[in-house]
Structures are given as C-alpha cells and as structure tokens.
C-alpha cells in the first residue's frame, strides 16, 4: 500500500524509521542503516523536512532528524505506517483472541523503526492460546512476508515471572 503511494524506497525507509516510533537519527547513521549513499538519504531528508514532516535540530555540527509531531498529518502518517507494517492488525488479533493478555509490546528492530523482516512481540498474560499464536505467526508470514517471534511473560501468584519464547 505505502509503496504504491510513495515511489522512493529511501523515502519509505525514512517514513518507517521516523513514524513507527519516536525515533531520531542523523544522516550518516541513516545511510549506514539503510546501506545507501549519504547523498540519496540527504535528498529525501531534505524533501521530508521541506514538506514539514520531519524537523531537524542541531546537535553541535550534526543535524538530528525526527518526525514533526505537530504536523497536521502526523497521526495519519503514523497510522499508515502502522498499517503498512501490519502491526496494528496483528496486535489487535493477539489482544482480542489470545486469551488473558494483560499487556502486549512490540520490541526489537520494529520498536526502533527498523524493518528487519522479523516482528518481535512481548506478551504478558496467563493461559494464552499458543495454538492460535502459531496460526497468527503463519498467517503474518504468508500475508506480510515477516517472521514473528514472541516472548511470553506469565505472572505467577508468587510474583515470579516465567519466560516462554516462541520463534519461527
């Protein structure tokens, strides 16, 4: 969806980076992370800054970029990025159908705005439906071509946390 609206792959990476979480970064770090030239990243940073979607703050001689959360379309772009990543749908299904989920968090690369191809989740709850979790992981991989790894913390009566890790 997002890639049919935005044709620049670098611009998509920047939108994912800055609008999936409240990340900030500078030119050279972005170029290294994206494995692209600093010039191609600079061009897209300038375009997004001129459009008001990003703001740049000076940190010594370095410009640090972040999403402009006062932009009128900030929430809409954030929602589009979330839908593009498939995270909103995945989290909603987990919370609604997994059983007694107390809390659910996105951790790892996606929490830092990096599209690594693996979505890592932390679930806190008791008596979760592991079979349904396996089903969701398969469907997510089929639909989004992204692996899902899940860490489950189960609170016990003695306040000791047990950890179960499920990977694909």
UniProtKB/TrEMBL annotation:
GO terms for biological process: regulation of DNA-templated transcription. CDD domains: HTH_ARSR. It comes from the Bacteria. SUPFAM superfamilies: Winged helix' DNA-binding domain. This is PaaX-like protein. It comes from Belliella buryatensis.
């Amino acid at each position: 969806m997002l890639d049919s609206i935005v044709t620049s792959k670098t611009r998509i990476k920047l939108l994912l980076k800055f609008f999936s979480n409240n990340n900030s970064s500078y030119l050279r770090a972005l170029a290294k992370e994206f494995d692209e030239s600093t010039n191609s990243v600079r061009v897209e940073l300038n375009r997004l800054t001129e459009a008001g979607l990003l703001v740049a703050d000076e940190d010594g001689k370095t410009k640090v970029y972040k999403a402009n959360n006062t932009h009128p379309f900030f929430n809409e772009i954030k929602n589009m990025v979330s839908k593009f990543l498939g995270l909103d749908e995945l989290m909603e299904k987990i919370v609604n159908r997994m059983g007694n989920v107390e809390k659910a968090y996105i951790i790892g690369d996606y929490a830092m705005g990096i599209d690594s191809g693996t979505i890592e989740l932390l679930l806190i709850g008791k008596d979760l439906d592991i079979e349904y979790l396996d089903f969701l992981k398969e469907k997510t991989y089929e639909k989004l071509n992204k692996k899902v790894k899940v860490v489950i913390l189960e609170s016990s009566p003695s306040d000791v946390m047990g950890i179960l890790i499920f990977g694909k």
